[in-house]
Amino acid sequence: MPPKKRRGRRGDGAFYQRKSDGMWIGAYQYEDEYGEKRRATVSAADKVIAHDRFRELRTKIDSGTFRPRSKMTVEQWLSYWLDNIVKKTKDPKTYVSYRGAVNNQIVPTIGTKQLPITPAIVRGLLKKVSETDGWGERTTQLTYVVLNIAMTAAVKEEVISKNPCEVVAKPKVTPSQGVKSHTSEQARKVLLAALKAEDPYVTRWAAAYLLGARQGELLGLERDRVDIDNATVELSWQLQTLETHEGAALTDPDRFIVPDGFECRPLYRKFALTRPKSERSKRLTPLPIPLAAIFKTYLETAESNPYDLMWVTARKQPIPGKYDNTAWHDALKRAKVPDLPLHAARHTTATLLQEMGVEESVRMQIMGHSSVAAQRGYAHVNLAFAREALGNLDGLLKLG
């Protein structure tokens, strides 16, 4: 009668050959972070290799360094990452941008793949986005950037051990052949036509051309931040629409979904004033004297509004970006000038300043850009010098 097979000591785990396929299996029990008993296994066709893996598994579990392989799919991780990491730490605009890339590009292609994914899967995703789906270069690049950030977070959270994007080249974007913008003569036509048509936003377009400010900065400009006497304007807040908590009343001051420390001043429904993300964007900008004069007349004659904004809708509500864009294109059509995005007005200011030989530090201050020159010691710019530079654009406002 053959001797009975000796059993290992309780807690040593089990090491055996599986009859169905001859594979050697090592199994060891452990407790997860919730105190639930789990079973980890290793396997190999070679007994020695399997035993080495089994011994390594037991060592990791006993030392507390064992991390079970994730059973998450790409979609499950990205959903967790967006809701629990990005939403709570990033600017709402960043969250919306990341979510768009996840929902439109990443999940439809590799959402069902189980983590960890390989570099080949990442390359296949990028190829499908750019070639099969026909998205542009910037969208393809954004897809890579978002996935890379998400996988880096997965490594930090010990969901996976390596980031597959690290060995995949970041997609390139072909440099543009110069940004289109209006000439000074075209800008003057826009203002003349708007004035003749009694466009209520003629001062809005003048500010776009002469201040070089971003759309959100101007739509969020409050009247008391325009200093006519000192001919300056403080661009320290921007108008933004934010997501609200489910079920929250649109009058609840805490209705917005924003990360801790995010500066936000509720206005109307989903509209709020938010702080620009960079300190350089919070700037005091000089008003060209002609623009200051127009602003003075406008502030004295325009009706007040509950939010003290420079420009509002006919119903005295904050202006949505889409509404502002439509009014801009109507103004260009009226003036019979090239139809360009509203952001082109910002490029017009930058181009004119450069053409007039305004030094870089002044241009950077006016436009709210950062630059190597500014970082080398141009911490402040003389407002009189900057105002003189902008004053050279007075011809835009000589409408008579």
Describe this structure in words.
The protein has 400 residues and is mainly alpha-helical. It has three domains: 14-63; 74-167, Tyrosine recombinase, N-terminal domain (DNA polymerase, domain 1); 184-237 and 276-397, hpI Integrase, Chain A, CATH 1.10.443. It has helices spanning 47-63, 74-89, 92-110, 119-132, 137-156, 184-196, 202-211, 215-219, 289-301, 321-335, 343-355, 360-367, 372-375, 383-391, and strands spanning 14-17, 24-31, 37-44, 226-227, 232-235, 238-241, 264-266, 271-274, 283-286. Strand 7 and strand 8 form a beta hairpin. Helix 6 (184-196) runs antiparallel to helix 7 (202-211) and helix 7 runs antiparallel to helix 9 (289-301). 30% of the residues are buried.
Beta-strand share of residues: 5-15%
Major sheet summary line? 3 strands, antiparallel
CATH architecture of the largest domain: Orthogonal Bundle
Measure the end-to-end span. Answer: 117 Å
Radius of gyration: 30 Å
Strand order of the largest sheet: 1-2-3
Strand segment count: 9
Looking at the structure, the CATH topology of the largest domain is hpI Integrase, Chain A
| Shape annotation | elongated
Question: Class of the largest domain, according to the CATH hierarchy?
Answer: Mainly Alpha
The average pLDDT value, as a whole number, equals 86
Q: Which bin fits the share of residues in helices?
A: 40-55%
